[in-house]
Specification:
Blueprint: H1 3-25, E1 28-33, H2 43-51, E2 55-60, E3 67-69, E4 72-74, E5 101-104, H3 109-116, H4 123-133, E6 137-141, H5 149-155, H6 162-177, E7 181-183, H7 188-195, E8 198-199, E9 202-203, E10 213-214, E11 219-222, E12 226-227, H8 229-236, E13 243-247, E14 251-252, H9 254-263, E15 266-270
Parallel strand pairs: 1-2, 1-5, 5-6, 6-7, 11-13, 12-14, 13-15
Antiparallel strand pairs: 3-4, 8-9, 10-11
Helix pairs in contact: 2-7, 3-4, 3-6, 8-9
Length: 273
């Protein structure tokens, strides 16, 4: 091998290692979509994440989109059909180990119920379970209708009937108790950037954190719907607080009440919540 080729080979190897080390240090998140075209509506999210040096991957669950789509029937499997499977692919429960968090723009009533009950059985519920157990964040689109895109196309319905909407809201409140966060689907990338202390390439604005608090000297503002012990624990790690202001109608979990009582923190309900 000539000297020039040798030097070029060494440089390529060094550059490759540096790129691998840089990628390993970058925050990593996984976006989970119910079909292979759903991500198109989130192109701006990926631009924002790239600008902030946040690595993202996208996972598509095309197997759950069995439905009539226009003139074409989409099926996940069936008798006499060929099914391709990657023999080396990790099990769903292993996937969150490689990421700092999981982003689910839309979640179905079924998956929300499974997560709320601590059940597995679907890819979404297994991913969420593994992420929460290993201390990774899970953030879900708060304006998700509870119906997947395939459900909406097949049933010609845009939302659940009221009894199911009530059940969906209940599941969401239960998910929050287990540590799942909710944010408007259009703001999920901003939420992630804030989580890592970044925002459009700028320094993090300390006026608010992803848990829904505003920082201050002794009084903190809570903007969420369910005040959990985990949120109280996260906020009190950085310093002593005396009072939490929350909007009327905010629910305080029993464990959070005990924690607040032990630390002597007052919860003040206001009209501005």
């Amino acid at each position: 091998m000539e000297m020039k080729q040798l030097v070029e080979s060494i440089i390529r190897e060094l550059v490759g290692k540096l790129q691998e080390e840089k990628a390993a240090k970058e925050p990593r998140v996984l976006y989970l979509f119910n079909d292979s075209t759903a991500h198109e509506a989130y192109a701006d999210h990926f631009i924002l994440l790239r600008k902030n040096g946040i690595h993202y991957d996208r996972m598509f669950l095309d197997g759950v989109t069995s439905a009539w789509l226009g003139m074409h029937k989409v099926e996940s499997s069936g008798s006499g059909r060929v099914i391709a499977q990657d023999d080396s692919a990790p099990a769903p429960i292993e996937i969150p180990l490689a990421y700092d968090g999981l982003v689910i723009p839309e979640i179905s009533l079924d998956d929300a119920g499974r997560i709320a009950l601590g059940m597995k059985g679907t890819v979404v519920s297994e991913l969420a379970f593994a992420a929460l157990v290993t201390g990774k964040f899970v953030v879900v689109g708060d304006d998700s209708p509870g119906l997947t895109r395939a459900d909406r196309r097949t049933l010609k319905a845009l939302e659940l009937p009221e009894p199911y909407r009530k059940l969906f809201r209940y599941y969401k409140s239960e998910m929050q108790m287990y540590g799942v966060y909710f944010a408007p689907s259009k703001e999920l990338a901003t939420w992630v950037a804030d989580r890592f202390g970044m925002k459009a390439g700028e320094e993090k604005d300390d006026a608010r954190d992803p848990a829904g608090f505003e920082t201050g000297t002794g009084i903190e503002r809570f903007e969420g719907k369910l005040l959990t012990a985990e949120w109280v624990r996260e906020r009190t790690r950085s310093g002593r607080i005396a009072c939490i202001e929350a909007g009327k109608g905010t629910i305080v979990s029993p464990l959070a009440k005990d924690m607040l009582r032990e630390q002597g923190i007052e919860v003040r309900m206001t009209d501005g919540g």
